[in-house]
Specification:
This protein is mainly alpha-helical. It is about 65% helix and about 0% strand. Helix 3 (about 90-110) packs antiparallel against helix 4 (about 115-125). The protein is flat, with a radius of gyration of 22 Å.
Length: about 170
C-alpha cells in the first residue's frame, strides 16, 4: 500500500513557518514564566554587586528577544544544500563538546576556573580544528584574562582551586 501526498508549491514552507512559530511561541511563554518566577528572587546574602538573579533574567531576556524575532520573521528557516550536513562526524563533535562541558562543570570547583578552563579549552580548540600552539596560547591567555575580568574588574569571584596558593 502506498500513500501519496500532494502539496501545493510552497505549502511545505508555510507548514515549516507555522511549526517554527508555534515552537517559538511555546518557548517564549516558558521564558516569560521563568522570568516571572525569577523576578522576585532575593538571596539572603550577596557576594556580587548585581546579585544572583541578574544572570537568569539577562539570559531569559536575550532568549525572549531571539524568540520574538522568530515569531515575526517573514520567512521560515530552511536547510539549504550549502549548509554542512548533520553527519556522524558532526554528531561525534557535538557529543564530545557536551562531554567536555560536563567535565568542565565537574572540575570547576576542585581545580579552579583557570586550570579547568585550560584543561577543557585546549581539547575543545583541537576538536574544532585549532593548531596546537595557537590553541594553547589563546586558551591560556583567555583563561587568565577572563579570570581577571570577572574576579577583579567585575568583582564576581571565581574559584582559584589549586592555584589558590598564589593568591595574596
Amino acid at each position: 500500500m502506498t500513500f501519496s501526498c500532494a502539496f501545493k508549491p510552497g505549502a511545505i514552507k508555510e507548514l515549516l513557518m507555522v511549526i517554527q512559530r508555534i515552537f517559538a511561541a511555546v518557548l517564549l511563554m516558558a521564558c516569560l514564566g521563568l522570568a516571572l518566577m525569577a523576578w522576585p528572587y532575593q538571596a539572603p546574602f550577596s557576594y556580587e554587586p548585581v546579585g544572583p538573579r541578574a544572570f537568569p533574567l539577562l539570559m531569559l531576556g536575550l532568549m525572549g528577544a531571539a524568540l520574538l524575532y522568530l515569531l515575526i520573521r517573514p520567512t521560515a528557516i530552511i536547510h539549504t544544500e550549502e549548509e554542512p550536513a548533520l553527519d556522524r562526524e558532526t554528531l561525534v563533535k557535538i557529543g564530545l563538546c557536551i562531554a567536555l562541558l560536563l567535565i568542565f562543570a565537574g572540575l570547576f570547583e576542585p581545580l579552579g576556573f583557570i586550570l579547568s578552563s585550560i584543561l577543557i579549552g585546549i581539547p575543545m580548540a583541537r576538536l574544532y580544528g585549532g593548531r596546537w600552539l595557537p590553541s594553547v596560547v589563546v586558551v591560556i591567555v583567555m583563561s587568565v584574562g577572563l579570570y581577571l575580568l570577572f574576579d577583579k574588574a567585575m568583582d564576581a569571584p571565581l574559584p582559584l582551586g589549586l592555584l589558590s596558593v598564589l593568591e595574596n
